[in-house]
Write a structure and sequence with these properties.
Keywords: Hydrolase. The protein has about 900 residues and is α+β, with helices and mostly antiparallel strands. The chain is elongated and about 140 Å long.
């Protein structure tokens, strides 16, 4: 049954992919389906990309919620483009690295069901994600046994008592031990117990018999090699004591392994639950007895409920639970009660070795007084806790975590409490591991979705400042509370603080001021996050100095403001701070600094995600740098090809408008110039080199500089163009043909102006008279750069007061809208309406007409040169 439906349509443009992801995410979160949001977003991203990018049509996205799951349909209008699926015994999508078919690979991997449907006009690709099952738990019965089912023992149960001194040598051996193993006391006293003990080598357990003898209490199974050479399995209970001389020793109570009930401590539920257990009957689930019902369905809720129940079960003052890392070398704090959880959350301690190691993680341990063994439990240092019991969480022999309960009074816990807590830990270990793996999978999929969106955003800009801002905004507050980005210009430069962001905008200025005062972190090209104490040390030192001044214990001058601002900054950077190098193309181009507030730590998963993000951000930042450098160089070179400011021509108005096609281009294949030749005479030119871009701009520079040089040497118009034609042909393969209108201008004393022009393959100049008539002012002649021998001639034109001469490049006349083109006739119509306008107004009206002729931006360079002889009233 369909319970909800949402639909949206997206245009065939690249940004629609991100918009579709946002639509699906918002829809499913609005329906409260956070468990499957990340999978749905990743699949939608791939399928919409196929529709709007590869198929090139609009995409319809429909989300349908039913009783059992959510179905998402993506439709495009290109059914002829088949999905790359082959059904000869299975699906074949090609290699995962190929662009085609990756969306279907993900569907096959993540979706519960998926499929493709075709109609005459549409292709529909759909997938369904079922709601995750909520495990009901495994129930185990524990009925009261009849007498006939009780374990059978011999007529007399023998308990061997063996005492071992501090060096591991046997110092006492009772009669029952002699009966059990066949040794007389004189045969074994003075020998190491390790000569007799056959200790089991359990994978993942590093504790041997020597280590077990050093523990205050221990219970377990091992073997004793008897006088006949056979190994007898025994169940042992060890108690470490001090003898009459004060020397430590261990008393070992040994029974046959099948009689372990004689020594084994009873595994009981929580205190006060006995009556309740009896009432519930034999089918009571030990997990639900400990956790309660209903059990939390999320990892954090399950862990928090676990520590609270463990604390209550042993009547403790505090409890905590740590989860092991994948390599089991560290334990990470995930839940606590009665302790400063915000301060300790996600803190890590090593398991086996190093300062502050958590040496008792792999087996139960009881510490009667922590003051006697400082640092034995790093998590409880300076918390006021004196006694603690800890037990491991294990799944199939693998350490997955540690559960501890602590009390402020010493001597509160014994081996019995350890066994009770271990019983509870065994009941919840598998559930915790399942929830942990589910969370890791959710985080992995969320990370994938995060990186997909981050990559889209970073790839969408080549602006350096915008890239820096995106880097910071993507990490705060998702991965960190604050962020700083340092950039490195080159290997000889010091890192420069380029961007600072804090989740609280009021803290940004204080944080930036603090970071500006301290040395930047060291540049290390190796990957991975490393700690940095610089901000913490500087902030707390500044806060201390400010506090002392405010109390008049330091400098006599009282600060203008109290210590509040310094203390706030110290609190903001008081947690863990890490530095990730930004490495692109084997060079350190910067550093990404992430920080937490007071006493908070990063999750390892977030650090790994930050590393992935830093690699993508580094490449995006370097691309922005290269693009900015290339653009700056290109624009500098292009500006050198533009003529300087137009000269003031007495008695003639001159106006030029120039537009180069292409992003970042200031000069293309079109060019113009107006320059003085000699007293009273000016040269002007407007031309068009075949093509656009840098190659055309190179010929532009050659033409403009050659025109000035030849004209000032006294050559007339035809001679100037013939020599320029030879220079272009000398360029060989790099030459481009060129259309050029060149002329010389002589203002006259009577208010008119005489022009001599040569039009070499260029659009003809147009003359606008005062009566509104328009006529061509020259005749066409061959273009330059094609043939060696040119015979050019110049024509004389006289502009009377009020007349206008308009010169344009073909980017104006060839402006298109579909099959329509502005053309010479359209330009004449525009010019006819310009009677009485100044040269600047004429050029502007022509430009507006060209821009309005079509909706798309111009695809060709344009140059417009207008010259007008003003009427006497104008001057």
């Amino acid at each position: 049954m369909i319970t909800a439906r949402a639909a949206a349509t997206f245009e065939p443009v690249g940004r629609s992919v991100a918009a579709a992801r946002t639509f699906v995410r918002d829809t499913l979160q609005g329906w409260g389906l956070t468990d499957i949001v990340d999978d749905a977003v990743v699949l939608t991203s791939e399928l919409v990309t196929n529709a709007v990018v590869h198929a090139g049509t609009t995409a319809d996205v429909i989300c349908i919620r039913a009783d059992t799951g959510v179905r998402v349909e993506v439709s495009d209008r290109y059914p002829e483009r088949e999905v790359p699926v082959q059904s000869n015994g299975g699906h074949h999508f090609g290699h995962p690295d190929r662009e085609g078919g990756r969306g279907l690979l993900l569907c096959a991997a993540l979706a519960t069901r998926w499929g493709v449907e075709y109609t005459a006009t549409h292709k529909h690709v759909w997938f369904q994600l079922d709601f995750p099952d909520r495990p009901a738990g495994t129930r185990a019965a524990g009925p009261a046994l009849p007498s006939s089912a009780l374990p059978v023992a011999e007529s007399r149960v023998r308990v061997g008592v063996v005492q071992v001194d501090s060096t591991g040598l046997i110092s006492a051996w009772n009669d029952d031990a002699q009966e059990l193993f066949g040794y007389h006391p004189e045969q074994v006293i003075g020998k190491p117990l390790t000569d007799l003990a056959a200790w089991p080598h359990t994978p993942g357990t590093g504790t041997g018999v020597a280590e077990a003898l050093l523990l205050s209490r221990w219970e377990g199974s091992y073997g004793i090699r008897g006088a006949d050479g056979r190994v007898s399995p025994v169940y042992a209970s060890h108690l470490r004591i001090r003898d009459a001389e004060g020397e430590p020793s261990t008393v070992c109570l040994l029974v046959r392994d099948r009689e372990r009930a004689v020594l084994q401590s009873p595994m009981r539920g929580a205190a006060g639950d006995t009556a309740d257990t009896v009432e519930r009957g034999p089918a009571t689930d030990a997990f639900e007895v400990f956790i309660g019902s209903p059990a939390p369905d999320d990892l954090d809720g399950l862990l928090q409920r676990t520590v609270e129940r463990a604390r209550d079960m042993l009547d403790g003052d505090a409890a905590y639970l740590l989860l092991a890392t994948d390599d089991e070398t560290e334990l990470e704090v995930r839940a606590s009660t009665g302790l400063p959880s915000a301060r300790q959350r996600f803190a890590r301690v090593p398991v086996e070795a190093g300062t502050g190691r958590y040496g008792s993680a792999r087996m139960p341990a009881v510490h009667e007084d922590l003051s006697a063994v400082p640092g034995a439990v790093p998590l409880l240092v300076n918390t006021g806790m004196r006694s603690v019991v800890t037990v491991p969480l294990k799944v199939e022999g693998r350490l997955t975590g540690s559960l501890g309960v602590a009390a402020e009074a010493p001597g509160r816990y014994s081996n019995e409490e350890a066994l009770r807590l271990q019983f509870a830990a065994d009941r919840i270990a598998l559930a915790v591991e399942r929830a942990r793996l589910t969370e890791l999978e959710r985080l992995r999929r969320g990370s994938l979705s995060f990186l997909v969106e981050a990559s889209d955003l970073l790839a969408g800009t080549l602006d350096r400042d915008q890239t820096l801002a995106l880097m910071a905004q993507m990490t705060v507050p998702t991965l960190a509370s604050w962020c700083a980005v340092y950039t490195v210009a080159d290997q000889a430069s010091e890192p420069e603080l380029s961007y600072v962001l804090h989740e609280d905008e009021d803290r940004i200025d204080g944080l930036k001021a603090l970071l500006m005062k301290i040395d930047p972190p060291e540049q290390v090209p190796t990957g991975g996050a490393r700690g940095w104490s610089g901000p913490y040390d500087a902030a707390h030192a500044a806060a201390l100095r400010t506090s002392l001044r405010s109390l008049s214990l330091g400098d006599s001058a009282r600060p203008s403001s109290g210590p509040g601002a310094s203390l706030a900054t110290a609190s903001a950077v008081g947690g863990e701070t890490v530095v990730l190098p930004l490495v692109a193309r084997n060079r350190v181009i910067g550093m990404l600094v992430l920080g937490k507030p007071t006493d908070e730590h990063f999750r390892q998963e977030n650090l790994e995600l930050a590393e992935d993000l830093s690699r993508r951000a580094a490449l995006a930042l370097d691309n922005a740098r290269l693009y900015s450098e290339r653009t700056a160089i290109s624009q500098s070179l292009q500006r050198s090809l533009l003529p300087p400011e137009l000269p003031e021509v007495a008695g003639v108005e001159v106006e030029v408008i120039y537009r180069a096609a292409g992003e970042g281009n200031e000069v293309g294949g079109d060019f113009y110039d107006v320059f003085p030749i000699r007293d009273g005479a000016y040269g002007f030119a407007i031309g068009d080199v075949c093509g656009t871009g840098p190659e055309a701009a190179a010929v532009t520079g050659l033409a403009r500089h050659a025109l000035r040089l030849l004209a000032r040497e006294g050559f007339g118009g035809p001679a100037v163009l013939e020599r320029l034609n030879a220079a272009i042909l000398d360029e060989g393969a790099r030459s481009r043909f060129l259309t050029l209108l060149y002329g010389e201008l002589w203002p006259q004393h009577d208010g008119s102006a005489v022009l001599k022009v040569v039009c070499a393959g260029h659009p003809l100049p147009l003359r606008l008279r005062q009566d509104g008539s328009v006529e061509a002012a020259a005749e066409p002649q061959p273009l330059l750069g094609v043939m060696d021998d040119l015979e050019l001639y110049e024509q004389t034109v006289t502009l009377d007061p009020g007349d206008v001469l308009l010169c344009v490049t073909d980017g104006v006349t060839e402006r298109r809208e579909g099959t329509r083109m502005l053309g010479d006739d359209g330009l004449i119509d525009v010019l006819t309406s310009c009677t009485g306008l100044t040269a600047g107004a004429v050029a502007s009206r022509v430009l507006r007409a060209v821009e309005r002729f079509a909706a798309d931006p111009p695809s060709d360079d344009m140059a417009i040169l207008a010259m007008r002889v003003p009427e006497p009233a104008d001057s």
